[in-house]
Task: structure prediction
Amino acid sequence: MKTMTCKQLGGACDKEFHADTFEEMAEVSKKHGTEMYQKGDEEHLKAMEEMKKLMNDPKALKEWFESKRKEFDVLPEDK
Result:
């Protein structure tokens, strides 16, 4: 199990997420983002606007995901 924060994954806060794989980490982060969107959290909404820009550029989005996957891969396992 590894830990990343919302900010590390392009979000707006220091909430920690825990997952065994990068795919799981992305899913937990997405769920949190959805919750923050529904609450109308302004900082998260700003972060989501940045992600929308990435989504309009498939190459940039792929590069972003690969950089986050590499960041996840080198993290130490939680103790």
Remarks:
- The chain has one domain: 2-74.
- The mean pLDDT is 95.
- Residues 4 and 76 are 11 Å apart (CA to CA).
- The beta strands are 2-5, 16-19.
